[in-house]
Amino acid sequence: MYNFLVSANEGAWDGEPWSLERSRFLEYTEKDTSNKYKELGEELLAEIIEMPAIFAYESGCFKDPCFGFIRSVRKLRGRPIMLRIEYELVSLPAFLSYKNLEEESLQDALDIGGWELNRTHWAIKDVNLIAELAKKGIFLPTWVQGKPDDYVNSAHIAALKSIESKSFDLSKLIRLCEEINLAYSNGSYFSVLMLLRAILDHVPPIFGQPDFNQVTSQYGGVKDNRSFKSLMSTLNKGARKLADEVMHKKIGRRVTLPTHQQVEFRQYLDRLLQEIIATLDIE
User: How do residues 109-118 score in pLDDT, each as one tens digit?
Assistant: First the structure.
């Protein structure tokens, strides 16, 4: 299944929240699907935000659609009732054009009605978007397909196991990496965040620093690489902030659960482990 959102506003999908009349939710949606999601409760919303989304424009805009995910939906009081939708766009090497969306064959494949691109609305389509896009030569990342890669590259784990360090016992780091892979593959995203934070707290002595804040500000990399500092700063701020938000927030009437998209810090952790391996190799 996938979300299909259409707007007549040419600036709709610029990253800012988008509002839609509640009555336009589930237009152009099959009856069974509409009946299931019409109440928009917490459990159903959790399912919806796991679905990929196409963010399209009405035909008269002549603008290409975007790919991404809905992040949150909030009902706004007033007349009419509005839905405030926050979303995240995902950059792909290639995606659909507005001309593609007007092709009859693609409309049939994606369950897009003939006049649907002339109406601002939000539909949920009972279509395997991944498979249909693949037929057009558009291949989504594996994490979008529900087939996550390892969170930690297995080659890095093997490299850590092969290192015979005189200064550091790497057994805990190796085990943290193995457990974060298990947690990620099982969809245990609270555990992913906790394990990621544990790694950041564990490794600073390898770089001669007392904590990871000092790693980001004082350590320049094996080759004095400024980009390493920048990447580690992003990892430190992003992972810690998200971990604090989801791990320490007290129970209330509404809670949000972390998703696989939100814990996507793999490229930064990958770079950190590369630096650790390089540092210990020249020890």
Answer: 999 998 999 9
